[in-house]
Amino acid sequence: MATSGYFGYLAGPPLIGFAAEAAGLPAALAIVCAACRLVAAGAAFIPPVRDTLTPELPVTTDAITHTTEGSHA
Question: Percent of the chain having pLDDT more than 70?
Fold first, then answer.
């Protein structure tokens, strides 16, 4: 994920420059806005990542909690 973000950081400005030379700066920035909208809309369809490495612990209601507050013995 970090590599793709770094690639976008490095490749984005030259690509915007090429698009600006071909179609003008307002059109190039409109392409960037459209790409951002596409990514934001597509993010709604990506399911959340589940952590499969750590097992789920059973939830108990009769758990005893211990505090060390005030126990300086």
Answer: 68
Mean pLDDT of the chain: 81
Residue with structure tokens 């976008």? 8
Q: Three-state SS across 7-53?
A: HHHHHHHHHHHHHHHHHCHHHHHHHHHHHHHHHHHHHCCCCCCCCCC
- What residues contact 29, with CB distance under 8 A and at least 6 apart? 16
Q: Is the pTM of this model over 0.70?
A: no
Q: Is the Cβ–Cβ distance between 34 and 19 less than 8 Å?
A: no
CB atoms < 10 A from the CB of 59, how many?
6
Q: Where are the domains of the chain?
A: 2-43
